[in-house]
Fold ABC transporter ATP-binding protein.
Amino acid sequence: MKRYWKNNRLILAAALVLSVISSALTAGISVLLREVVDAAAAKQAAVFGKLCIFTVIYILLICGTSFFSSVTAKFLTGRIIREYRRDVFRGIMGRRPSRYYQENTADYISALTNDMKLIEENYIIALLNSFELIVMLAATLVILVLLSPLVTALLMATFLLMLLIPSLIGRYLEKRQTQVSRQMAVFTEKLKDLLSGYEILKSYSRTEDANDCFQIENETETRVKFRAARLFALNEGISDTLSVLSVAVVLFTSAWLVLIGRISTGTLLALVQLSSTFTAPIIMLMQNLPKVRSVKSVIARLNDYADSGEAEQAGQGIPTFEHEVELKHISFSYDENTPVLSDVSMRFEKGKKYAVMGPSGCGKSTLLKLMTGCFEGYGGSILYDGRELNTLNPDRIAGIASLIHQNVYLFNWSVRENILLHEDFSVQELEEAVKKSGVSGFLSEKENGLDYMAGENGSLLSGGQRQRIALARALIRRTPLVILDEGTSALDRETAHEIESRLLEDEEITLITITHNPDPELITRYDRVYQMGMG
Ligand SMILES: Nc1ncnc2c1ncn2[C@@H]1O[C@H](COP(=O)(O)OP(=O)(O)OP(=O)(O)O)[C@@H](O)[C@H]1O
């Protein structure tokens, strides 16, 4: 987190200076109060008049500095959160797939929304606030000592007592806040799951069950939040009591000092006023410091996200595919107990066409994901032109191989942007990809053609249309290696045949097709068919 304060040091400096001025001016009101009361008591009308004008100017000054101090603090908070969120998002996106899928997308969403809000409120704002309060406390202390050392000593005693509380409660609050953050992630995850499954729940008449499911999470979240809030309330209750106590101590001591003629009525009023500008910041500090402490673990988790992208870059070599990709004696398992692949070897030569077949669950997709650098930790070797994949930069594999998954993801963008993914391609390249992938076959039905919006995860398109867009997305990039993982399974036989046939004709691409139902006419055109078995 320190780096974000550093990155914005000029704005931070401005916010701190403004907050020092604003706090000192607020503390100074008590002196003004004493002068006004004493002038009135001594019936000094001329002095009283001057003090009235001075007070108006003084109040305007407080208003101005307090406004600018607050605006600067908010600006600073916004910038820090913006930069932090950017880094956390980058870190998440930079994760290798194997690590990315260890957590649920809802965890990431919760980190970037709920947790960021916690950090904004309970850390950044609380810290800036605490600084202002400390300055106000220091300014008040100086004035207090000058007015009455005895009252100052009594206030200091209650101050020490007040400081003791947050340090006792803070540890428990941190634990509770971590529970809240975790529960919010679970809540987001369940919510996302239920809303994504809307269609299934409706068609099986399970919406009532979904309501119950939601209600359970809703209640759990409320309970966990309330447990944390209860502890915050205890903290606030104790500090409020101590504050009332300290005001009473100051009032009675000052009144006694007036009785014995040691101070004036104006000083009494100033002392009472000062006691509240002394205790109010302490109460707020007591409430702020545990808050700051409570989000420590949340910050640690987000830092882990932010740093994970950089830490996970494996090899730095640039992969090439001039001759072949070879998989030698590959073995792999997602967990230690269930091997998915054992001793699988395949060789893919540039420009040739390959089909990979085998029973469902035998590891065909896993093998090709390994080949494109999605997972590490495999046995054997994957060689791009003789160079081991582990020594190569996995991000650069995308420039060589396009993997068209069985489950296509479409953004809620136009068909055009779903193909381009905001990358620059010429009109001719786009037209060619649209034709080759079969997208052109359904575009004529859509009023606005390529500008047709796909909807949330392509909900406004059919499964086959989605697959064709995914194919166009890969073909426009003209990667030398195209891997179709059941990439035409949602298409009618005729369209699938047409597309596959076009891909087989293209001499520039090396095609690897994973298929359960090979087209009998086309399978003979493959250079080699690899048959995989279970385990
Ligand atoms: N991310 C994952 N984490 C854990 N296990 C996984 C993961 N992905 C796949 N598996 C498991 O690995 C095994 C192989 O899956 P894979 O998808 O590679 O098979 P497949 O041959 O492509 O199957 P299909 O033909 O049905 O698509 C399956 O038992 C599957 O449950």
The pocket of adenosine-5'-triphosphate is lined by residues 101, 334, 340, 358, 360-366 (CB under 6 Å). The first strand starts at residue 324 and ends at 333. The beta strands are 324-333, 339-349, 353-357, 379-384, 387-388, 401-404, 481-485, 510-514, 528-531.
